[in-house]
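Researcher: Hi, I'm a grad student and pretty new to this. My advisor asked me to get structures for two proteins we've been looking at. I'm not sure of the right format, so I'll just paste the first sequence and hope you can take it from there.
Model: That works fine. Here's the first sequence with its structure tokens right after it:
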Amino acid sequence: MTPEEHQREFLYQAERLGIEVQGRSMEAVAIEVIDAPIDAIRSLEYCGAPCSPSELIAEADWATMKHARSARSNVWLESQILCSSTYDGSISHLVAKGQERAHLAKVFAAICHSRLKDPQKLLTIYNILEDDEDDVALEKICRVMTDVGYYRAAISGLLGVAASFKAKNYHVLFDIGNPFSTLLPKGRFATHTWDAVSLFGAYDDQLPQDFRQGIFEWRQAILGYCNTGDIPCDVWRPTFRSTLVFHKHGTERLNQEQLPQIKPEKALQFAEQEGGESGLDFLWEDVIRFFLKTGNPRYSHEVAEIMREYGRDPST
């Protein structure tokens, strides 16, 4: 979205909450939104970064991965873990499932062809085919969202800290599927919130037997780090990257030679070819978030025009 679209969308959602917006400052409106009942806010099904960039967050580069790569951490920071899950895009999956839109692979392919220099390369990395069934296509598209918007955002944060101070930085990837999910197939998607919930053992008695080793090692590593500052993982450096991956059967250490073979790293290489240092933000805003936005009937005409230009009938 453009800054103007972000702002209009925020005001639209505020009006849905019954908040008067005409002739008022964004700050006054935002204060009322913050005070609104939480159930009313949830009922909006409004996700994303509604205020960036806009009057509320005027700095255009504030919420970008390019900014994170050059941001400086607090001088007191001694060490940190930056973690992502292999399916952080699950929230986008659920939002898209609630939209009345079909032919998702064709829609995504049309957006890629209209906005990317080498669209087929991205579609090939994630094996997105125009004749994919919608459920299959959505799973693949949300994996693109995860890798660009979450995994690579974590790496961008690591780059920023590594460039400024001598703090020890670690990168962790959670890849243990949520065994209790009802909205997504059980056990297939390693989602955020499940990574946090699994740390505290509330549902251990319900865990499938083959998940227990991975959860035990995950919990031991993260809670152990909180206690001692140590984790069984190499320090992440820009010149020697490493990632500790937690699968249901245990841990896996990926080093500098192995990392380029995984999809998130291939996505980074692709993004840099497309737009240099701003390539990830371009992919996130102009391809991925545009895809999500145009699932809303209020914006669907924008992608319909793109599909016609691409030679595809938006209704089939």
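Researcher: Oh nice, that was easy. Here's the second one.
Model: And its structure:
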Amino acid sequence: MGSLPDPKIRRIAIVGGGPAGCTIAKFVKAEEDGYFIAANNNSRFLLAEGCFKKIDIFEQQASIGGTWNYSDFPVSGVKHEDEIPSTNPVQSLEKPSWVNGHGKESGPIFTTPMYEGLESNLPKNLMCYSDKPFPSESQLFIPREEVCQYLEEYAEDVKPLIQFQTQVLDISLQSSKSNPDIWTVKYQTLRDRAERSAAYDAVAVCIGHYNVPYVPDIPGIRKWNEAHPGRLSHSRYYRRPEDFTGKKVIIVGNSASGVDIATQISTVAKTPVLVSSRSESFLVSTGTGKEEVPEIVEFLPPSDFVRGVRFKDGRIEEGVDAVLFCTGYLYSYPFLPSLHPKLISDGFRVRNVYRHMFYIEHPSLAFILLPFRITPFPMSEAEAGVIARVWSGRLQLPAPEAMYGWEDDRIINKGMGTSFHALSFPEDFDHHNSLYDWAAQTDKGLGRMAHRWNEKERWTRQRFAAIKKAFADRGELRHEICTIEELGFDYEAWLREEEEGKLTDPGVTL
């Protein structure tokens, strides 16, 4: 095991029709004469390889967008208080709702972490695909609604490959002497609940990792939640700040969602909004009405305290109306239960994968966008470029021992937990460029290539947190800001000053 099967891969299934699934499909399609099946997010690059006879994309939602799709429904319809604490990655497949926010029947609705007023974390010149820039007149950090429209346009040429409203139920490996890697994909069309199955030579999993919320098992949290139902929640279910008007709120976590949601809520909640975290954020908080506090170490007994919590420094806060956990997600693949060795143990990382992509025992199974703290759309192109070329036979993987060696080295350097897939700058750019260089080894004008980051883009990425703060500080005027130069971040001017020995830097965040 650990090598690709012979005969060559001809039939590909892609699970997920969001940003990643459509990307890998395009890269395959570029070879012109292939037809590819993808499920969910990562199909563009595979089509570019042309040697594939069948490409199917399975998307459980009714439209393009994946994680970027928004629905009001979870706020009033999902009883998520019974998910606290949430530490088990082994979950059943999510069942859709068929009612929209106005009580009318709609397409299948699945919960996503989108909320009102959300804007991208990255400036548009770093966020976009290599072949589709955002419009020059768009604001610098793109609103959620515009991102959805952008993805619809990007996916136009691969839409015929997508089976919408179709949920993958199970993927199992069926080996034979003639072909050791045959993947049986069992799926259900959600409208009529009809179940079917099909065989593929390779599977790309492109569902993201925002499906199973992680809420830590803090001492006392279970009894507190039972005594005060509805007061503990996760950012996956947050939709608007008005739901917290006049309330005493604690935000747990200070990553991108925690910082942004705390800023939103602080405009209507009882101030200060307490932002609880274990470490300093790599982002710069904006606005007022917030107070940073240490991590919560105990939810105090309801019999002795009025909705009380204790922080690590001993401070006690009572009368807490809402605690919103912005504590991330667990990796979970309920449609892949029978793999051995297993992909998931505690859910903090995906096991037995090479370069965050290939399942080592059977590299005909691959994943797109396992890493985080990255530039997702460009990274999906870099990964898809490699996967498409490996599956077409134009690029070779190392021996299984070497791939397991990469995983072992990663564990030594990053640990077994969430840091395994964390690619903080500059590692994200270095990893992206290394994937580009790997794919370029075989590129002779065939297939699609991702963009390789240059020095100006690296300079911008290094400063993105300061750029984001400068943008947010403009308030409503931020909607008129379209370039980083308008905020005082001018790479050419910085370069000239550096050459002249007069460097004055507006802000660097590593």
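Researcher: Is there anything I should tell my advisor about the second?
Model: You could mention this: The longest strand covers residues 166-173.
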